[in-house]
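quick one
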Amino acid sequence: MGLSKKILVIPGDGIGAEVTTWGKAVLEKIAAVYGHTFTYDEALMGHVAIEATGSPLPDETLTKAKASDAILFGAVGHAKYDNDPTAKVRPEQGLLGIRKALGLYANLRPIVLFDELLDASSLKPEVLKGTDILFFRELTGDVYFGEKKRSEDRNTGSDLMIYHRYEVERIARKAYEAARLRSHRLCSVDKANVLETSRLWREVVQEIAKEYPDVETEHMFVDNAAMQLVKNPKKFDVVLTANLFGDILTDEASQIAGSMGMLASASIGDGTGFFEPIHGSAHDIAGQDKANPLASILSVALMLEISFGLKDEARKITEAIDKTLKAGYRTGDIADSKTEKDKILGTTAMGEKVLEFL
Ligand code: NAD
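structure w/ nicotinamide-adenine-dinucleotide:
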């Protein structure tokens, strides 16, 4: 039987609206084919919201967000604020505000490399081929939120690295649940040979692991993980890690996939999940039908898999993207200048191609 879900679309600024149009179109197609009922609402955030209401995150947006089952987000940002660091009201406050209000404590970033784009990465194709990693980065703890101090003489600084058991427990469960929907392998990354927070992290993950005997758990030190990621990325499936280590490792890993226009991310908590491309509002190409819609379409695949447990539907979407790329269709950002074979399309034509293959 089909599922019934309420989805809030927040296009935001710049290319946000251009790419989410295609994310939503793919959702509509999936619903029609699989017999699901997805209903949609739309809300403002970022510069467009400031222009319309004075606030980057209007109350109405938050109310709609809390009432929805999942959120498809585009991007926020406008050149006017980028050049004015003193502006008091800013588009990105909308994003931080909604993450806080929805209690989104886990950031998920899948690193999937399509075979057709193997040459877009700076790493060797034979090392990359078959890479498919899902990162779980903790978002609410660590040195980012611990006490920050500077000595009176300004010559000594310190940041308190702090984790609480409940913070590790809740993200570990999310990661294990996802591992169950994938290849039943999870690698927890820490620095337990040096840090007390990491020893707590490892202890808690070992306890949670007992609830998931069908998932194989590996513990790895972060320095080793950083090295293994470029040496043998295929070794990883679900990677679970703390805020600081996740920050660094996910940026390192994003280079495996080549272009920003290909990467999606999700922020989840105990309620509504939030799905978005990792790229920003890209003022330089906004309104020119040049944006790659694939990251938004992949965000939708992530929503279906993670928020709704629809693994088959998610796979169909990545297969449709794979076929589109195999047929030689590319947006400008992923086109190979060395080959004449690529058929370069705009946002609309690329979105239509994915729908056709779907
Ligand atoms: P950006 O991601 O918007 O763009 C970086 C470069 O990548 C640009 O050259 C752009 O044309 C290209 N690019 C990005 N997405 C693309 C796509 N889908 N297809 C093709 N090319 C693409 O980052 P930026 O230029 O540093 O920032 C622009 C604005 O976006 C700023 O206001 C920034 O604050 C904001 N921003 C928002 C988010 C977000 O909403 N999550 C994230 C990053 C930056």
